[in-house]
Amino acid sequence: MDLLERLRSDSLSLPPLAFCLSLCALLVAALKVTKLVAAQRKTVRLLRSFPGPPAHWLLGHIAEFSQDGTEIDRVYEWAQKFPFVFPLWFGPFVAVLLMHHPDYIKTITTSTEPKDDFVYKFLIPWIGKDGLLVSRGQKWFRHRRLLTPGFHYDILKNYVPLMADSTNIMLDKWETYANQEDSFELFEHVSLMALDTIMKCAFSCESHCQTEGGTNSYIQAVYELSDIINTRSLVFPYHSDVLFHLSPHGYRFRKACKIAHQHTDEVIKQRKKALKEELGTGQKRYLDFLDILLCAKDDEQQGLSDKDIRAEVDTFMFEGHDTTATGISWILYSLACHPKHQQMCREEVTEVLRGKDTMEWEDLSKIPYTTMCIKESLRLYPPVPSMARKLTKAVTFADGRTLPEGSMIGTSIYSLHRNPAIWENPEEFEPLRFLPENCAKRSPHAFLPFSAGPRCAKPVHHHCLFPCQDILEKNP
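^ aromatase, sequence as received from the core. Prediction below:
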């Protein structure tokens, strides 16, 4: 009994465990807040030479975005008030210096600065850290070197019949709407066509997504992932991994990731098996994107791991279908709004076809006016409206202002393409801007529909041309 009483007395003299834990948590939180405040003050000092729109003390400029699709226009308004560049605050601690003039942009696009983690980290659970979009350093250089042959013209030529086939499926569906008064959402059809094309060209896979619609679980997962990533980037609380993980969106995201990864793993497994069988029988066919990934070897005859291949496949699906579908949809919108230009394109395409069902690769150089119309649409409505980088070293811009290592910088491509200092009457649809003699007068960094420099997106320009010419030729 004496021992028990002594232990009880000693325990009463000790601080309660809960109090100790609370005190530790408070100290850790205080230290974290102190570091954040110090970093915030440092960022404010660094950006003092870059004037910009006033920001809310807590929400930054997020309070100015109503999430109704007008965010890009709001940024464009600020770009007109603050020439060249201005800071954009996402909350109290994260700031991005947003550029919209070629003299600033060329400083970044000519370098290999990595993508900014703040913007692209939401993609990593789906596409991983090893794909070209988010990887960095030697891994990025190695992957780019191994993947570049997959976008050679000799490879892309083989895709022309496949692109035409996917476009014709979409046009057959549109025939059912031709004699109806009801409107329909164009982008949904174009997006499915783009996915169908990528599945055929990149993976030799017949997805039937255009005819089966929402019954394809993989296609559903790709749409779900793209939509949730966009939602997460706009909802400030979802920037926290913990809050997002606990949310309904987080649950749906993990479920869609699992479906997408299982599908990709199975496609890679089956293709490896098929390549072995073809090697054994001596059969040959055109190489698709997945074949090139599987067969790629570096100077030391080392290939890509299964993890690397899955990352590149998932990256290709994410980057490829959305940008292509968005670009084509806006091109069709622009031509619909300008029937005179549409008619000139149709006459040009019809003249080149001369009774053929579809264009061939060599015909692309014979439709200069259509090409200029496509570029003008991409100028007004760039599929990639912005991009972001994180500096790995200090940079000095043309006007002498500097930013240190670790700073986040972005490019508003939408504002760049409508910058009145670069483009005369920037709001007007004027394809002749892209005559060779007019292009020669502009900076090569004035038109960046798919970014530029070493980290630019692989060109989607030709992927836009083939569907557009089919639509122009078959829908008078």
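The radius of gyration is 26 Å.
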